[in-house]
Write a structure and sequence with these properties.
Layout: H1 2-22, E1 35-41, E2 44-50
Length: 51
């Protein structure tokens, strides 16, 4: 279950970044209060939340 949540968050954030870079007019000009990052290493996977 945790992996599916991480994949969902990663997908949404990736689409958000793509749309922000593609269009001049932003659909969400609000600044983000949190940032999610996936971390991969040998035999490990982690999620970092920055706020």
């Amino acid at each position: 279950m945790a992996i599916s949540v991480a994949i969902s968050i990663f997908t949404v954030e990736s689409i958000d970044r793509y749309l922000d870079s593609k269009y001049d007019q932003k659909y969400n000009d609000q600044t983000k209060d949190m940032s999610w990052d996936l971390n991969f290493g040998p035999g490990t996977m982690g999620v970092t939340l920055r706020f």
